[in-house]
Amino acid sequence: MAISPYTTDSAALDELGGRLRRNRIRRDLTQADLAREAGVSVDTVKRVESGRAIGTDNLLRVLRALGLLEALGRAIPDPPPSPLERLAQQGAERQRVRHPRAPRAGRDAWSWDDEDGSPRPAGG
């Protein structure tokens, strides 16, 4: 059965539980084997396979033990960046290359006096 936006929560849990059960059986694991590999109780495996709710952390453990955790990542994709985020990531395109310059002798050693316009030593 395909899960659609019109599928009830109960029907979706039943379908997911059945898929987990079939994956467990294809890997030749008993419920006890899966529980041990996942680090959960056998009762947790029974609950999820029968379509009853379990904690998200336990679901992740079961999916990891079955090698299906990556599939969950594909099922819930990361949204693409917004146009503003893309623009911020691009930054400004460089127009030229600049190398840091060492100050030339005497260039920064003088400043102009505001009162009479004559040069004077910087900081003096």
**Separate helix tally:** 6
The CATH architecture of the domain at 9-70 is Orthogonal Bundle
Instruction: Give the helix/strand class.
Output: mainly alpha
N- to C-terminal separation? Answer: 86 Å
Question: Percent helix among the residues?
Answer: 40-55%
User: How many strand segments?
Assistant: 2
Account of the 3D structure:
The chain has helices at residues 9-26, 31-38, 42-49, 56-65, 69-75, 83-90, and strands at residues 110-112, 119-121. The protein is elongated and about 95 Å long. The longest helix has 18 residues, at 9-26. The model has no long low-confidence stretch (mean pLDDT 86). The protein is built from 6 helices and 2 strands; from the N terminus they run ααααααββ. It starts with 8 loop residues before the first helix and ends with a strand. A hairpin with a 6-residue loop joins strand 1 and strand 2 (119-121). It is mostly helical. Strands 1-2 form a two-stranded antiparallel sheet. It has a domain at 9-70: 434 Repressor (Amino-terminal Domain).
In short:
With 124 residues, this protein is mostly helical.
Tags for this model:
single chain; 124 residues; mainly alpha; 434 Repressor (Amino-terminal Domain); two-stranded antiparallel ribbon; 2 strands; 5% strand
Question: What are the SSEs and their pairings?
Answer:
Blueprint: H1 9-26, H2 31-38, H3 42-49, H4 56-65, H5 69-75, H6 83-90, E1 110-112, E2 119-121
Antiparallel strand pairs: 1-2
Helix pairs in contact: 2-3, 2-4
